[in-house]
Amino acid sequence: MTQVQPEADQEIDARGLNCPLPILRTKKALVQLESGQILAVLTTDPHAARDFQAFCQQTGNALLAQQIRDDTVQVHYVRRR
Question: What is the pTM of this model?
């Protein structure tokens, strides 16, 4: 996971949720953003990193960075296509 932290236009909290809920919440939030805006998603699911990689590859949205905050919380930065 990279340590680059883009500036997010919006942040959603999906901590405590397991797949596919963080991805579903991300899809819903991205619809409300304009092209080029950045969404930060907080997760605790240990499989979320690869889920977000696959999601972005399938949808064409850009996964800008993934980082671990406070040992358990992952932050995924997604730019809307």
Answer: 0.93
- The structural domain count of the chain equals 1
User: Residue 1 pLDDT > 70, yes or no?
Assistant: no
Span 10-47, pLDDT tens digits: 999 999 999 999 999 999 999 999 999 999 999 999 99
Instruction: Give me the residue label for tokens 């680059």.
Output: 4
| Alpha-carbon distances of 32 from 24, 44, 55, 60, 73, rounded to whole Å | 13, 23, 17, 16, 24
CATH number at residue 44: 3.30.110.40
Active site residue 19: yes
Q: Which of 8, 19, 49, 65 is catalytic?
A: 19
For residue 14, tell me if it sits in a domain. Answer: yes
